[in-house]
């Protein structure tokens, strides 16, 4: 007898059929006459009710079918008397596949704190909350490929181990086969990376953009979707040391085309989730509402989760320049008593998360695209504007999240690019291959990077980025 997943049972089964289910016991209730087991197999958030008659199923099996144990159930589907579910299974045979000692299994049928579950990250996916989050994460990843594939973009795999650190931000994880306690040295007493496996210093990638640009200047429209690594020292609710980034890169796009694509893409992905993750989202919506009531909401918002998602898909994003954002912030008096306080901005300094939150959550109450940032605070490869002061950069800010996308039109003019690299002390020799794109058939092009976990955070309403990736990597945290 083949196993049926609970999801398809709920969708298709009707009374009278025989079925075999396998899954993990969520709860068990017994009286003298009958035992009810709520079984979950991860295919959906719903449990399936197993009805076991002690006259038919041995006492020992029923005793050991505790929360956390895995079992196989064979029986007949019958109409359910209970509310909420059409059918249930009347067990003819139950096999215990794996026991779970009730004294030791940490995930009990009660509400655990997210902190507790983080300490048990190896088992937390057995809860409703994390089951829902990781199913949604899957659907979002699938939607990313669907969106680009349907539009003729090609998925490009960029290297994980690279010799460039893209931004020169110095937040890279070094990779080397040398024994750094006792490394070989050259005549200047510097570490001699010539003896390394790669015969050079390498690091884990912080972004696939530069390599993505090479592909775009041949395939026209590409995207990468891979892990990126940043040795972020900050312990925030928005930063991981290992996160997944989606980076489309398009030849023949200008800054506005880039913004149009990013907005359309984000709305598509969120609509996809609303369509394909109804039950999991309904569960998380309720969860968020409870947190809100208990004043524990992690992702502050005036709206419920589902309303917020609908809202973003139905409303155009606000588009302003950095200078316009600066004017708004300059004239908005920071008020210490209110929710939004922020330091005064000087034109030319980067916006802090308090400024971004004010603009999105208070001033516009909509997603905001900020463009044309001062050139001094952005990367060398961004296209320089006519004014000589700004570059064609854009950040997209989302309510409750802050920056979700960072992108730009790229500088396609070789002279402008090398001039900027010189100013910033970025080696042209090391990036000779990147500069070749500007030497041979250069063309206007643009792209952006979207942090996949920030997107999952927005869609699930989870306040801490550690709760939307199965095994978060943060300072001091790499056990599982
Ligand atoms: P932030 O200002 O939040 O530190 P950033 O400007 O350093 O982000 P970018 O280099 O622009 O980030 O990367 C593109 C996108 O990747 C960001 O908009 C964000 O969504 C995501 N991102 C960046 N750093 C992290 C991180 N440490 N963990 C998770 N996502 C990240
Ligand atoms: Mg950063
Ligand atoms: Mg930023
Ligand atoms: Mg950025």
UniProtKB/TrEMBL annotation:
GO MF term list: asparagine-tRNA ligase activity; ATP binding; nucleic acid binding
Pfam families, alphabetized: tRNA-synt_2, tRNA_anti-codon
Keywords assigned: Aminoacyl-tRNA synthetase, ATP-binding, Cytoplasm, Ligase, Nucleotide-binding, Protein biosynthesis
Gene Ontology, cellular component aspect: cytoplasm
Cellular compartments annotated: Cytoplasm
Protein biosynthesis in keyword set: yes
Annotated Aminoacyl-transfer RNA synthetases class-II family profile domain residues: 134-470
Catalytic activity: tRNA(Asn) + L-asparagine + ATP = L-asparaginyl-tRNA(Asn) + AMP + diphosphate + H(+)
UniProt record similarity statement: Belongs to the class-II aminoacyl-tRNA synthetase family.
PANTHER family: ASPARAGINE--TRNA LIGASE, MITOCHONDRIAL-RELATED (PTHR22594:SF34), ASPARTYL/LYSYL-TRNA SYNTHETASE (PTHR22594)
Record protein name field: Asparagine--tRNA ligase
Species whose genome carries this gene: Cyclobacterium lianum
